[in-house]
Amino acid sequence: MKIKLFSLLLLCTSIANAQTNTYKFKRSITGVNTVWHKMTLPDDLYKKATVSLEDLRIFGINGKDTTEVPYLLKQRADKVTLNDITFKQINQSANPNGYYYTFQSPEINIINQIKLAFKQENFDWKVTLEGSNDNKQWFAILSDYRILSIKNNDTDYQFTKLNFPDSKYHYFRIAVKSTTQPELLEAKISKTDTIKGTYKEVRYKSFDVKNDVSKKETVVDVTLNTPVPLSYLKLNAQSDFDFYRPIKIEYATDSFKTDKGIQYNYANLYEGTINSLEEPAFNFENTVTSRLKITIQNNDNKPLRLSSLQLKGNIYEIIARFDEPKNEYALYYGNEKATNPVYEIEEFENKIPVNLTSVNIGAEQQNPAYSIKIEKPLFENKAWLWALMVVIIGLLGWFSFKMLKN
Known about the structure:
Distance between the termini: 67 Å
Number of strands: 24
């Protein structure tokens, strides 16, 4: 009877481990007291999980039963919505102070952005923006706002977007200060709304700047303490003059050893322009990495003064449904062959409660149920090598004896 009971317990343990034995690491989840909860992934998890986080699983254990918990993985990035507002151009005029373009809307709308397009490819103008409700009394919105376009063999750059605080008028008038008449092709007037995401400041370990005279570029290597999500970079770049230069931001995907030391393979995060007109801040897709490379093309110009940078990343958050709150739960990861799970709750996200309480994710542990072992080649086993040598020596001796006998 005792043997049967032990066998039954062993069978139950094997069934429970069957779902979790392909994951190297686990972290206990505590504080589950209702069906829906949220949890924030700790920074030291990203080093052991796959880069795409496809191997994250939550399992609940109750005796012999192991159940997989469905979840949604969310990154709390900014959500930007753009609504175009209908305006028509009703007037175009000029005086010694500049060239004027007036726009009218059928109804009063709130706007905060105007994108301008001109036929000219090279210009550097100052712009004034005013608003009015009667086309008589005008109120200043922007003054001496600089717009710029440069196109040549080395550069193709435009900055012709007017950004300003929310403004609600029936008429808008743009004044361009120029010695030649601007040829306005289009003016897109719109209202942008931004729901701020959740960001976490990331500290870097090292900031190494190298100016390569032969390649006419500046390369900045940034090393972090551990792999973490990154989606925002602000560079402290200064110069005594206005500047506009191509910039490329890359992240390290893996590394390899060479005679010159450890080298890295990189993939693109962002390509654009760093200039003196806009804040040197760049947003890109949330990416887990521990190393960045920033390349600024100087051409024949003096390198910029680069002193520091600011890094941020969007927090990854899990929203999970715990059907049996009394079970023991843990987060498992560390399986390079795992693929993204498919859960039905993704199709019914609108039914998930808005206000969720957080549960705690514990410290990392080795998963005792992990049983995937890498099989070594047959001939790396010393016992097989000795057995093979004995067989070979025996065969050689037998053939030698036969030859001597003959």
